[in-house]
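Researcher: Here's my situation. A collaborator sent me these components and asked whether they could plausibly form a single complex. I don't have experimental data yet, so a predicted model of the whole assembly would be a useful starting point for our discussion.
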Amino acid sequence: MRARLWLELAGFAVLTAIVAGLPRYVSDFRARELAIVGMYFIALLGLSILTGYSGQISLGHGAFMAIGGYTTAVLSIDGVYGHQIRDLWTIPIAGVIAGMAGLLVGVPALRLSGLYLALITFGIAVSFPQLPKKFDHFLGGTTGKILNLAEPPFGLRTTTNNWIYYLTWGIALVLLLAAWLLVRGKAGRALKAIRDSEVAAASSGINLATYKTLAFGISAFYAGVAGSLYAIANAYVNPDVFPIILSVYLVVGLAVGGLDSLVGLIAGAGLIYFLQNHADTVARWINHLPALNLDPKQPGIPSMIFGAVLIVVMLLLPTGAGGLLRRVFGPLTSRLYTRS
Amino acid sequence: MGARVLFVCGCIAALAVTSAGARPVVTPGVSADEIQLGSSVPLSGEAAIAGNVARGIEAYFKYVNDKGGVFGRKIAYTYLDDGYDPGRAVNNTIRLVQQEQVLAVFSSLGTSNNLAVRKLLNDAKVPQLYVSSGATTFGRDYKKYPWTIGYIPPYSEEGELYARYVVKNVKKPKIAVLYQNDDYGRDLLGGLKRGLGSNAKSLVASVGYDPTSADVQPQVTQLKASKANVLMIFAFGKFSLQAFNAVSRLAWKPQIFVNDVSSASALMAIVPQNAAKGSISIVFGKDPAAPLWRNDKGIKLFQSILKKYGSSINARDLKDGYFTAGMATAYTMVDTLKRAGRNPTRQSVMNAASHLNEKGNPFVLPGIVLHTTPSSRFPLTQVRLQRWSNNAWHPFGKLISAKP
């Protein structure tokens, strides 16, 4: 058991080192792209706690990201009673507000499961974008709200993109650790028990209501933080920044990363960013195959490639990147496990 | 090894990450043999058809490059798809500025999309040139946003022109307005109201639709109930199409005015002709589908450039006004780069764009002069009216001013 713990800690240290060093080797713009991957990663961590561990499906996490993003926009532009809040400090507030919204959703979710829960959460994703349109004086309507461009604080001499990169990945690592501590402890065991059988979990003394609602709240908190960072990075929010399809992408990222593999989610986050923004690059790669000539500028081609790549990935890795990691490192950890 | 200790370790690690090293900021410029320009346009989504503007620009730049470029430099043009979504336009624009390192962002499409990036481009002192939107603010608010300039006639003036025409030519006008409920539609509506002036009472109904809604039939039904005899369609893309369909289905016979950016011949030709016939709009670019220009030199040039330099061009594209609109802007852009001197900088390009005096752009109506000064930043301010009949637009009347 000890050995496995150390292995995981070593893995975390390696990850930290990679994250800290990477911007030295990539362009300023790539740092921004990696930061956005980090934001998806944070949202996926939350979704993994909810779906991967407690077995509740949410097709509405884009809406929690939107709540986070709008919280940051409102607090940093309009402020509270005219006092604007620095974008950095709006991040935890955005997380808490999204988390509270998550708790609220978690309550009715207690009575529903599986497909029905998925539908309810999807309803949230569909209806949320209407709110900013309804309250357009406050939330900017379809025109949206324009934030100030993020600048490194405390006189740090770095570019905006590097600052956003380090900020995002710094937060992501803390939240990764927090999620890891949560799922390896008592709460994690309770959540897994609920996922595997609610009846069995309840009969062994687990309070279903508490844990299920809590999972919703925590995962919405993660999504809110991600949305807040996204708003800061883009310096702009409108309903289309958090479209309905975002919620679906998040579920896609979760499946690709592996439902209950926290680190594997980085791959899921990377894939959903890459396919959304670089499908044209993939089209150019595919064009090297014989008898294919896709014009990446033609409408519909990027979405088609997204779908095709997704099918291939899921065929090759049915358990996601997490499953692959386990297959590679599994023999190693189990041997260590038996020795200790 | 308590959980808390672990957590603290993690926080320290994360802090270390956060405060790690800095890298120098790169300054973009113009290389010895290339000038980088870029735009964000819809190639997918409900406004995808308007993305042909960028394809027209691309073809024209290739033509110019083939003839030696501008002062020996080739123009490298990158256009990215935003699906008419301002959020993606922000992403694209940041990519154009930081990754592609463009000299200027040029002819990006859409009011909200350009509004969303205006502040960040001005903060970064990157020219936002010849915005593909007639929102009045792009030309008017140059004091706050000195790096932004519009191109097409301002929407508010367009609305005002329609109002003046109605007051003069329609007996006992009762006007109904269908408008897109965002800055774009409201700009047109505002101009119309101003143009009506003391005749404000003749505006009997105005109904907005949300740009993400599915169909505007309910709004048109509501407008018909006002018993208006004039209908203004201030819409875009599929919504104008739906509006004409609804008018036809409801057997309503108002005098229709349709604003410039939703009056493409390609669109007008596929809507029910019993509704479309007699519609009025403004025009400033040569429409390759209009019979009037069949033997025009500019349109012939346009078609030969598109055939030779366009990518995957079909016969329909040769009659598509979006391509011509793109070439008209590209022509002005090349003109601007020439004015900006042998070694253009962002400042000199902006300076050139605000000192335009361009005559003879082959892709706009004869007689139009594109003129700007630092305090008058509306390049195109002369238009004619045109009427739809026999499946084509027919310009009528003289050039009139749409200068604010």
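Model: Some features of this prediction you could bring to your collaborator: The longest strand of chain B covers residues 392-401. Chain B touches chain A through 51 residues (CB under 8 Å).
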